[in-house]
Amino acid sequence: MLSLLIFLPLAAALGAAVVPRRAVTRVWAGACLADLALVIALWVAHGTRPGVSYETDVRWIPSVHAGYHVGADGLSLPLLTLTAVLFAACAVYSLRQEHRVREYAVLFLFLETVCLGVFAALDLLLFFVFFDLSIVGMYFVILLWGHGGRARSALTFFLYTFLGSLVLLLGFIGLYLGADPHTFDIVELTRTPPLAGSAGLAGLTLLAIGIGLGVKTPVVPFHTWLPPAHTDAPAAGSAILAGVMLKMGTYGLVRIAMPVLPDAWRRFAWVFLAVGLAGVLYGALVALAQENAKRLVAYTSVNHMGYVVLALGAAGYASGDADARRLAVTGAVTQMVSHGLVTGALFLLCGVLYDRAGEYGLGRFGGVAGTAPVFSALLAVAAFASLGLPGLSGFIADFQIFAGTIGSGTTAAAVAGALAVLGILLTAGLFLRVLHRVLTGAPGELTARVTDVRRDEAGAVVPLLAVSVLVGVVPRVLLDTVEPLSAAVIALVGR
Amino acid sequence: MAGGAVVAGEAMMNENPADLAPELCVLAAAVLGLVTGLFLPRARQWPVAVICSAGLLAGLAATAAAATRADLTAFASFEIDPVTHVTRAVVLGSALPVIVLAAARVRGHPRESEHYVLILFSALGTLVLGASSDLLVLVSAYLLASIPAYALAGFGKDPPGTEAALKYYLMGAFLGVLMLTGVTLLYGVGRGTSFTVLRENLGDAPAAAVAVGVVALLAGPLFKAGAVPGHFWVPDVAEGASPPVAAFVTTVPKIGAFAVLYRIGAAALPPGAAGWPALVGVVAAATMTLGNLAAFGQDNVRRLLAYSTVGQAGYLLVPVAMAGRTELARPALLYYLAAYAVTNIGAFAVVVAAGRDGLPGYTGLLRASPPLGLSLIVCLLGFVGTPPTAVFVGKVLMFGAALDGGSTWLAVVAAANTVASVFYYLRWIVPLFGRPDGNAPRPARAPTAVAAVAALASIALGVGSGIALAA
């Protein structure tokens, strides 16, 4: 079942390559919606029980003990669902796409398979294969459908994240060699952590994995590839890049780094705490200074992913309160989902602006609320969700992260958590500033060009925000699924 | 036979010519091709290509049959073990598409049959080179692999080809003499030329003499491998010779060279002699760095590919450096060799098919010929080591070998180099997506098929690596 979920988009991509040009977008959207239905069915059937469902383990490269091992648990399912939701939204958003639509659809369907594969992989090598392919896919998306200095941005993106992935590969090989017997299987590595006897090697391996995943996340100071890539990518590409692909980094931390290297994680939790805090504050401050709307959203991603890293760092303090640390992990996972939904919506809305005006400059808009009321309402909801207003998904995530971080009882974590709260203040300020400058006031020079959202655009953005509201109002559906996983992770890190 | 002392319990001693069946198939096809070529009219020499291809196919079949039998040593100097099996399969499997590429180009050439026969002789030399476990066999194999290749490089008798052949020959002759010096020295201090004898005796020999001997000995195989410092001929031959010959000389001779380099490290030298891991590791690091840096500014795709093969030679030297230090070294080397050969042949097949040398000439290729464009993308991403292509698996094993062998620095250098290499491979990919400019290349049929098969094989080797590695 899970393999069907993963490879259905790829099969649809082959279909999209041969059907008549006019049917391409329909095949694309249809496949995405079918995949979405499938993942929801998988989630419902899995329920809230702990452990891994839908496991498949096939021998792949037996001589290095790497297999095609996939499965879904409380961590995978929310992210798989997020992936399916976002890709479906992007398909709907792109119904009117005309420039090389066939290649576009094929590439996005390919990317969907790759992203689902990352979140389902239970084998390091398999994880890496999907992880690396996502870079290739996104490179072509930026290169071929981007704007501005797209060739340069695409190359920067590729070189940066590819270097990160190679460092990650070295870390994985370190885990493989450290395990006895040698294996790439995450489940077995979790059961018997490798490198338990040699703290130095474990630290080095964690460093490699941390850098590899950190580039992807991205954490400060490895974030410099992100603003140009996001600014020059097409709207749907930015939405996928920020909404889904940034999660691969933090997902890897929860799935691989914490359970497989628990001792090293405990020892270096303070590094993640500090790096997370730096991301939170730096991302928010730099976002505050942006004139380009898309760049601004890109920098808020640095800020939000900083919260996730912060929470995971706090969860590593073994001396802290276990309940609080569990809350931090749950908050981190919730933040991944919430950020995916909200940032995806924000980037698609930026795409609407660009589609009309060909420009992202905040200063050149104003009074858009008058000409495009629906657009303005959607932008306002997305902005409030992003800054963590109660009733929306961002609040649930932020609250748990802060409660978990500050409540874990150790001084360092409490101080970091308290400082990170400032990040909320900064994001609140910057989003209100955006709303103020774009939506209200006298019409700017480009305002006249901004017409309201079309049906396909609304059809892409509204569901994302609706899910965000749903998570904000009835979070239990999500949290109950994540809770057992958080407990398991904390138990593993605590051993 | 001299040096025929075989330790009991090791591989069986044997003088049965049937053990050399794949080599004999190639030899028979070459001789038959030569004789047939004499009697055929000048304009109708294509049957020679068929004969040569048949010989290669028969060799492949014989290889498959031999691979199922136990390891042995034939004539006390010719190892028949997994390294030889893979060398045979890859050499024969690479020479076959080269014949196809060449046939599309030299049809009707006055010396058409000689072209095929030279390819076969050089391949035969490479086969022997990869299987040799005796320094004297190594030397003769080196000569047999080299001399036909010199002739091939200058086959067109045009100024660039002549210059390439001259450089190739001078370089090969010089490094060959250096290698002979090394052989003499090692024979002197090791009291024998067989690898097993050397391994027993070199431990007691003066370390400095062994080190000098090994360094001199390496000159020959490193020249064949196109590795630093014997790499100067690579770009000139790749650019000056005809593209099919360029595909041949940057692929086939390397295979035998890396196989024998591995043998020297694993079987001829006592552990730790001549500082083997450090020595080869430094050469590997220098080779990959130099190749990748030099490839940056190339606008001629054949020169670009030439420097890329130098860079790839650097990665291939990593498992050679780890020979005998980790179990991963041998599968890493063999898998990477096969992966490299497939990818390199594919990339050169695209060059043959498109008939363009300049990077701008590839603008719009993806529109003009989707199969050719896609094959090129797969091959170039394959060189980078993107999953799920074959080189990816090779690189994983290579990194694993370096880390397990205790050379973390080498793994880091290789990773950094891989990232640097992305830059120039992407430089070639980007124009493919452009708008075709009126005179887009009209690809030749047979080379396009070769490129597509190579690209598919690369993916198949990557996805099905379990099956390939188990075999």
UniProtKB/TrEMBL annotation, chain A:
The name under which this protein is listed is NADH-quinone oxidoreductase subunit M
Indicate the secretion signal residues: none
Topology within the bilayer: Multi-pass membrane protein
Gene Ontology MF terms: oxidoreductase activity
Which PANTHER family does this one have?
NADH-UBIQUINONE OXIDOREDUCTASE CHAIN 4 (PTHR43507)
> What organism does the record attribute this protein to?
Actinomadura graeca
* Localization in the cell: Endomembrane system; Membrane
| Family, similarity comment | Belongs to the complex I subunit 4 family.
